[in-house]
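Suppose you are handed a protein chain with no further information: no name, no annotation, nothing but its sequence. What can you learn? This example shows the usual starting point.
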Amino acid sequence: RITGYQIPVSMSGSVETAAEHAEGILRCLERFPKANLRYVAEFSPQSNPDQAESFAFVIGDQMRFNNRWTARPRRGEYQEALRDGTRGWDTTRMWYGEERPGYGFNPRNTDTPLATAIHEFGHILDLPTLSRAIHDDVIELVNDAAREATREMAMRRLAAGLEGGWEITPSEVIREQVSGYAATNTHELIAEAFADVMVNGDR
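A reasonable first move is to predict its three-dimensional structure. Written in structure tokens, the prediction is:
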């Protein structure tokens, strides 16, 4: 398994968690060997208080994992927190009188440290590699999907003898098709969608 170049890595804590993070990064590098990732390490919540609750974050060409979660005694808690993030996909909800699918905070099946690393690699592609070059295209794609979802909903209501509908917003489309967290901003949409496709394939 050749990635084409070496990346310095500094990890401690749970060997199992570090192995899963490394596997996620390796899978991405096999697909995107020119990604601008130059360093992988951990960080402490005390030294990065603004990221204290994060599993990981990307700064420049570096990927850093929170040692609060990578610590061996916290592995079970880390896994449970990740599972919590994907709950909700098998539910439904009422939205303006219409039954709509539920959604999770994170994409389906991304409840592993491996998927955390893949999500962060999505930021590596978006920011230091592509320099936000795809943001306008992503926004246009989501806006088109929202318009189409609004049209389809209006047609369903008309066929059922109900009055027209309402606008389905881009944020609503993102939540239903990617994740709740993806609706935060375009950066997180790209990273969440990337993890979704890498883990679950195209839909």
